[in-house]
Structure formats: C-alpha cells, structure tokens
Amino acid sequence: MREKEKQLFYNVDRVTVLIYALLVFMGWLNIYAAVYNDQHSNILDISQKYGKQLIWIGGAALLAILILMLDANFYTVFAYIFYSIVVIACIAVPYLGREVKGSRSWFRFGDVGIQPAEFMKFAANLALAKFLSNVNLKIDEHRSNESSLLTKYKNTIIAGIIIGAPLIIIKLLQDETGLAIVFIAFVFTLYREGLSVNFLLIGLLAVVLFILALLVNNTYLFVIIGSLCLVSFLFIKRNRKNFFLVVLIGSVACSMVMGTSKIYEKLEPHQKIRIDVLLGRGTVDLKKEGYNVNQAKIAIGSGGFAGKGYLKGTQTKYDFVPEQDTDFIFCTVGEEWGFIGSSVVILLQLALILRVINISERQRSPFGRIYGYGVASVLFFHLAVNIGMTIGLAPVIGIPLPFFSYGGSSLWSFTILLFIFIKLDANRLLILR
C-alpha cells in the first residue's frame, strides 16, 4: 500500500483534473480567437499572446506535477511560511517591481512578469485553513463564562486579520482594487466553519446602504433609518440593553450614510465613473466611461443563440472590446460561441466549483475541508464578478476569468490553488490535521 501511495497520481480525483484541463484548453483557444488576425495566424507563435499563454500552460502543468509530488503534510506544516513570504513580496513589489498600467505590482525577470498578489490567494487560504483547523477551535465559539467581546470573538478577529491584511496591502500599496476585494470571498469559508449568519446580513445591509446613499437624498435616508428604529421598539422587548442596541445600529447606519459621500469623493476619477456607470447615475457617455461595458454587451449579444463561429467574431477581430483577451475574455466566448457556448463555459466552471465543495465535505481533516471551501469561494467570486462586469451587473474592477483570461500569474495562481487541494484530497487519510 505504501508503494501505491508514493505514485504520482495515486488517489487523485481525475474528474477535477479533467475539468481543469478542459477549461484551460478552452481558455487557450479563446485567447487565440481574441487576438487572431490574418498577419499572425500560427497558433504556436510565441511572439503572440496565445503562444506565450501556451508556455504558461506548460509551466502550470509542471507546477501541478510538482505539487502532486510533494507530501500533503508539506502544505500544512509550511502554511504560515508561504503566507509570510507572499505578504513580504506584496509589500516589496511597489518599491522593487515594475509599473504596469499605472500600478506597480509586478516583478520583472527578463521578459517574464510575475504578480505576487495573484499568489496571495492560495497563501492566504493555506494560512486560514491552518489557523481554523487547530484543535477545538471554532469561529464564534460560545464562552458563557467570558463577557469580553474581544475574547468571545477572538478567533473571528484573528481570521479576519489573516484575510484582511493582504486586502489592505494590495489595495493601499499596489492600488489593485480587483485583486484586493477577492479576499472578501473567504467570508463564505468562515460561514461554513460557524461564522454567524448575522455577519453576512450586516455585510449585505452595508452594501445596500452604501448604494442607497449614492442614489437617494441623505435626508430621506436619515428619516427612514429613524423611523425603522422607532418601529423596532414596538416588536422587541423594552429594556436598557435593547434600547442601546437599536440606538447603536441607527447611529452606525447614519454614520455610514454620511461617510459614503466622503468616501466616494476620495475615489479616483475612473473608480467614480465605474460606480456611476453601474448605478446608472446621470448620463453615461457610451463613447467614454460607458464604452467598455457597452461594447462588451454588443459583442455578447451579437453571438445570438449559436454564435458567429470560431474566429468569426467581428467585434473581437476588430478590437472593439478593450482587454478582450484578459478581463473581457467572456465577450469572445459570447460572440463566437453564442448562448450555447457561454452556457457550457459557465456550467463547466460551476461543475468544478461544486466538485470542489463535494470533495471538501469528504475530507477527514479540518484543514482539507477548510482549504477546499476557500478554493470554491475564490473560484466562484472570480466567475461571478468577471461575467457580471461584462454584462453590466458588476463594476469593472479587473478580475480575470479563471483558466480563461490571458496571463501567467493568474493561470499559475489558480493552478496552485486547485492542485494543492487535489493533493490534500488524494492523501486525505494521511494528513496529520
């Protein structure tokens, strides 16, 4: 049995690997279609993006094999080490890296660029899984003999720091909003491990309040909040504790409304424009701030039910859609493959996510289960936001479509994220914790 366990593909979930390989292959074909022209038609031309992506795919395959070769306990033992190394890299890159599109978030090694923030996703997932998998450790574990809120929610606070530190570093030091907000996805992992649903509801209400503060006159919102606070007294037990709780909630809500305008005014002009376009505030100039999303919708809609055919997309071929090989790669899918092809891509992505969740539930170790839910959360967040922004349901924040968008850092980070979990699952009976 021990000899079998040493084999490279021993107990590896082949369905997950197959879906991964299929998505990567389809992504490569779409990158080729996105940048294809009559002058450069050789699909193996490494001077073009599709040729370079093929090299990145080869590197991803080597990484996957290396991950499967290492002992599964390696990832549990060195989880915090990985996290620390990538955090240091994210802090160092604004000072030592190269500026790309106004953001200094890349290390350059000859012709190869590496974005450390992409690798922070798997590193943070490892650290979070390591922390939460400690013996007898539960999120929001009740301690009846401890009255301090700080003590009661200590585990939640520490988990929040593990998630929040990369978010703050990437946003403040690198100004990569898209990569930063991805870490919000780990909240779903915390929810699986016992985080109260109240936290999710508070977060949802905060988002709704933020949107309303931008769309509705603040005076009206103050009246509504005050009225809701007064009405709430009719349905709760009247005592000092509940009174202060309602007053606190009302005060926080009013503070958020007042703070929203100040936060909005401090945003960069392009960030304000993206929010205005999403919320439909004012008149959107389709030749300027609304151009990207409008062209994306035209490209996807022009594909119809069955698509125009592979390499026959006019919106794609004539570069009407900006970033059509990276953030807006789904436009190529929609135009050339139509509703049928788009549905296949989405269903394959969802199949991978559901497969990861299903495998997570069969893990014998808390570490494997928590890490698996982290993988599923990150993949789902990327899928939902990327497709959402191409069809105007989410702000354009520069989030790649997993395994489809052009870029070595993105492909490698998703590969590492997924194949560590595949290795953990393959050796789930042997993992220490």
List keywords for this structure.
single chain; 433 residues; mainly alpha; 2 domains; 3-stranded antiparallel β-sheet; 67% helix; globular
Question: What topology emerges from the helices and strands here?
Answer:
Layout: H1 2-5, H2 14-35, H3 49-69, H4 73-77, H5 79-96, E1 98-100, E2 103-109, E3 112-114, H6 116-132, H7 149-152, H8 154-174, H9 177-181, H10 186-192, H11 197-215, H12 218-232, H13 240-266, H14 269-279, H15 291-302, H16 314-317, H17 329-360, H18 366-390, H19 408-426
Antiparallel strand pairs: 1-2, 2-3
Helix pairs in contact: 2-3, 2-17, 3-19, 5-6, 5-8, 6-8, 6-18, 6-19, 10-18, 11-13, 12-13, 15-17, 17-18, 18-19
Task: Please tell me about this protein's structure.
67% of the residues lie in helices and 3% in strands. It has 433 residues and is mainly α. It folds into two domains: 2-195 and 280-426, no CATH class; 196-266, no CATH class. A hairpin with a 2-residue loop joins strand 2 (103-109) and strand 3. The longest helix has 32 residues, at 329-360. The radius of gyration is 24 Å and the shape is globular.
